Amino acid sequence: MAADQLLDGECQIWWARPDQVPDDVLTAVVPEAEQRRAGRYRQRVDRQRSMVGAWLLRAAVAVQTGERPGEILVDRTCTDCGQQHGRPRLPASGIEVSVSHAGERVAVAVTRLGEVGVDVEFTPLAAHFDRELAENTLSSWELAHLDGSAHPGADFHRLWVRKEALLKATGHGLRMPMSRIEVSPADQPPTLVSWPLDIPVDHVRLAMVNPGPRHQAAVAVLTSEPLTVRELDADLLR
């Protein structure tokens, strides 16, 4: 089995930098509709992140299906309005995916375990703690734990990415207030403690992943099975 094939019980996290993939490789794979969407960003680095995310998703999935990256069909139909800006899905493939990008990192999660969400955040000022933001996104129980932290800024970002990953896995996005989700304290293994959804908390798996300096990242998978996370670099796909 190739080193980049999905193993049983595994979620792969593929990492890329916004400048890691040549433009001609991107345009050869990414559909015109997604190229136009990326082109709406004013900043070049934002366009690069969007394009690399679209390429990385297809390249990572192609390894599993045996197709060419440009042949991977991605459905982004929004369940609210029907437009093509919703969470990415791969119909009839049995593969679940998620994409996130921020700062110097682009991430794609790939798994067969269940619906997945990955979130990466750029945190250059990790020591800065925004108390007002924390009060709007954390429960009183989570705030109480954070008040006892020696590094509240960094710990808050760790909680944030856990919650974002969960909301991406369920498809709710920011339509559900983050304060309605409780996760374990930042200095403990990541777990879902409580939320208002019908999905039992023991049918959800959370893991922190390693995006490198000045970033935080987490992945969530809706499964009751044990979760193994493996991180890979986009250079393996070229």
TrEMBL record:
Any Pfam family: ACPS
Lineage, broadest ranks: Bacteria, Bacillati, Actinomycetota, Actinomycetes, Pseudonocardiales
Keyword line: Transferase
Domain 4'-phosphopantetheinyl transferase: 116-213
Protein name as annotated: 4'-phosphopantetheinyl transferase family protein
Alphabetized GO MF terms: transferase activity
Keyword Transferase included in the entry's annotation: yes
PANTHER family assigned to the protein according to its UniProt record, in alphabetical order: L-AMINOADIPATE-SEMIALDEHYDE DEHYDROGENASE-PHOSPHOPANTETHEINYL TRANSFERASE (PTHR12215:SF10), PHOSPHOPANTETHEINE TRANSFERASE (PTHR12215)
Domain annotation 4'-phosphopantetheinyl transferase N-terminal: ranges: 25-110
Domain of life per record: Bacteria
